[in-house]
From TrEMBL:
This is Solute-binding protein family 3/N-terminal domain-containing protein. It comes from the Bacteria. Residues 1-23 form the signal peptide. Keywords: Signal.
Length: 371
């Protein structure tokens, strides 16, 4: 008899709508899921229309006649440009609905030197800090927000920018607040060495400076956040000075020489550290091209690693007596950046790190499974 009752209950359960079987949906999370879907929908339309290529082709590189953006920016096809299968979400809810009604969206970013100071000395200049402020990443974001506003027939969606200080606790910025210590002389929001502790001050999304395969606050970004399609990607290249005693013609050659010291910048530091764990990796945070040229010239590094197949001549960025470089070595590694949104069931906390920093500067995030 008991077996019959159990079988009958199981049969009735199968007939119930799925909503009656599962727990109450995450109503807050629905808005963030819709944000991702809306960004993806706008993005595939930009690619489909050809506007993406026009933005890249219209970029004014920080130094002319070095390398064209269309030669180093790669489009990953993790989202094929098919609008028919990438619709805008219906009935906006939660945070997405508030963004549409308020006409404002909060963007987390990391400040850099203005174009007329950096002038091609940083790898990031070749994506978002070109001549006269030409900016591929900003142009793509503006177009995405324009298309979203047009679809939902709202007014212009304005970007409210929130600067994220060192050590760039970007997952925390999405989840629970802005924390860190400003070490950036070009900060637009903080004094030098200012301790920032702003619980509850969050951003809606992180702009394109966190690669999809990386980690933040000891948690894989793909586990701790929601991500859009990959927007901008680029290869990773090894630059060996002429006259180097090392013979490096592939990624395997570099891995086989753990005594080679690698100099790199913010955009490639995690890639270099993880792909070449036996090598010493020196990270230059401000003007990585210029500073790595100087490090190699002064005997403090052996090769330069970044996402440009060709870098500007040393003299063009104020470095003299630096070596010339052989044709770059393509590692066959591609790193790409999406837009990042708040993740589900993630908790971040301050951790104590020995040194001169105040408690709270460094954070650690973890995924709370089962929620």
């Amino acid at each position: 008899m008991s077996k019959y009752i159990l079988l009958k209950l199981c049969s009735l359960t199968l007939l119930l709508p799925m909503g009656q079987i599962h727990a109450t949906p995450d109503r807050i999370g629905i808005g963030y899921d819709q944000l991702v879907d809306a960004f993806d929908a706008a993005w595939v339309r930009i690619v489909n229309s050809g506007e993406y290529r026009r933005i890249i082709q219209n970029f004014s590189e920080p130094i002319s006649e070095v390398v064209d953006a269309s030669d180093y920016i790669v489009n990953q096809s993790d989202c094929l440009p098919n609008p028919d299968v990438t619709p805008f979400p219906n009935r906006p809810r939660g945070r997405f609905a508030k963004i549409l009604t308020s006409g404002e969206i909060r963007r987390g970013y990391v400040a850099g030197a203005p174009w007329f100071i950096s002038a091609g000395a940083s790898t990031s200049d070749w994506f978002n800090n070109g001549m006269l402020g030409s900016n591929i990443l900003d142009d793509i974001l503006k177009e995405i927000l324009r298309i979203i506003a047009e679809h939902y027939e709202t007014g212009t969606i304005e970007v409210v920018s929130v600067e994220i200080p060192f050590p760039f606790n970007t997952t925390s910025a999405l989840q629970d607040g802005i924390f860190g210590t400003n070490l950036n002389a070009f900060s637009e929001a903080y004094e030098m060495l200012e301790f920032i502790n702003q619980p509850g001050v969050t951003v809606d999304f992180i702009d394109q400076f966190n690669a999809k395969g990386g980690e933040s606050e000891n948690l894989r970004r793909l586990k701790g956040r929601r991500a859009t399609c990959t927007i901008v990607s680029a290869g990773q290249f090894i630059h060996i000075p002429i006259g180097s005693s090392f013979s490096i013609e592939s990624i395997d050659d570099l891995r086989a020489h753990p005594d080679v010291r690698i100099c790199t910048g913010n955009l490639s530091t995690q890639t270099a550290n993880q792909y070449f764990p036996e090598n010493t990796v020196i990270t230059k945070r401000q003007f990585d091209i210029k500073e790595c040229y100087e490090a190699i010239r002064d005997g403090d590094a052996d090769v330069f690693f970044n996402s440009l197949p060709i870098n500007p001549p040393p003299e063009s960025i104020g470095v003299f007596n630096a070596p010339r470089f052989k044709p770059s070595v393509d590692t066959k590694i591609v790193a790409g950046t999406p837009y990042w949104f708040k993740g589900k069931a993630v908790q971040c906390n301050a951790v104590l790190v020995p040194g001169p920093f105040e408690f709270g500067t460094f954070r650690e995030c973890a995924k709370k499974y089962g929620i």
